[in-house]
Amino acid sequence: xxxxxxDGKAIAADVRSKVAAEVKRLxxxxxxxxxxxxxxxxxxPASESYVGSKAKATKEAGMxxxxxRLPDSVSQAELLALVKxxxxxxxxxxxxxxxxxxxxxxxxxxxxxxxxxKDVDGFHPVNAGWLASGLPALAxxxxxxxxxLAKTVYPSLAGLEAVVIGRSNIVGKPMAQLLLAENATVxxxxxxxxxxxxxxxxxxxxxxxxxxxxMVRGDWIKPGxxxxxxxxxxxxxxxxxxRLVGDVAFxxxxxxxxxxxxxxxxxxxxxxxxxxxxxVRAACAIAGLPAPSV
Length: 294
Ligand code: NDP
Known about the structure:
alpha/beta; Rossmann fold; 2 domains; six-stranded parallel sheet; three-stranded parallel sheet; 10 helices; binds NADPH dihydro-nicotinamide-adenine-dinucleotide phosphate
C-alpha cells in the first residue's frame, strides 16, 4: 500500500491561518501587532526570493513587515549597527538576517549580535542552549515545522524510535532536541555513522537532512515508518531543465513508508509558517503575555 503523502502546503496554510487569528486577538485585545524585520545584504536571487516570500507571509498574517536592503559592499560594522538598532526598536519583535552574507562579513558575529528574544530563526547560541536545556526557546523554523508534520501522523511522539540524518546547527541538532523534548528516543547520525541503512531501519520516524539527492533508499525504511524529507536538491531533469528532489528516493520510499513528505510541498512550506509562529511567540514573550496558542 502506498504511503500517505503528508501535505506540507495544506498544513502550512493551516498554521498560517492560526497565526493570523492569534495576531488579530493580540492586536484587538492588547494593542500588540507583532513585527518582523528582515535584513538582506547583497542581491543573491535565491535570498531575494526567500525574503520576498517572508515579507508577504508576514503581511498576510496581519503583522508588520520591515524590510532592510543593504548593498553587497556593506561592512560588518554597518550590519552590526543595524542589528543593534533593531534590538532596541519596540515595534520589532523578530529579527531575521538572511544568509548567506557577503564575504567580508562574519555571519556568526552578526547572528550572535541579535537579541536572543528576537532571534526568530533560532540560530543564536543562547537559544540553542535554552533548547538543549529544555527551557523555553525560539527553535529553528525548519525542525519546528518537521515536528508539526510528524504530529499529523502521530499525535504523540513519546517513545517513538526517531532517527535524524544530519547534525547541522540549523536542522539536525535542533531537530534531535525537539524530538527529545517530545519524549522520542533519538539517534543522531552523520557522515561518519557506520552502517547508516541499518540504523535508519530502526526508525519509526526518520528525518533526513543531508543535502544528498535521494541518498535514503527504499530498503533503508522500516515498513510503515514516517519519513520527513528535509532535503532540497536541484538535479538535472530528463527534459534538460533542473528539478527538485529530496534526500529520500521518494518513488522507492512511498511503497514502504506509512507516511512521507514530498519534495517540493512537504517541509519547505512549513519553514516560513514556523517563522510566523516564532514571530508571534517572540512578540508575546517580549510583551510579557502568555505564550500564544499556536
Ligand atoms: P549541512 O550541509 O549543514 O549538513 C548536512 C549534514 O548531513 C551533516 O551533518 C553531514 O554530516 C550529514 N551528511 C553528509 N553526508 C552524509 C552521508 N553520506 N551520510 C550521513 N550523513 C551525511 O546541511 P543542512 O542541515 O543545512 O541542510 C540539509 C538539507 O536540508 C539540504 O538539502 C538543505 O537544502 C535542506 N534544507 C531545507 C530547508 C527547508 O526549508 N526545507 C531548510 C534548511 C535546509 P557531517 O556533520 O558529518 O558532515
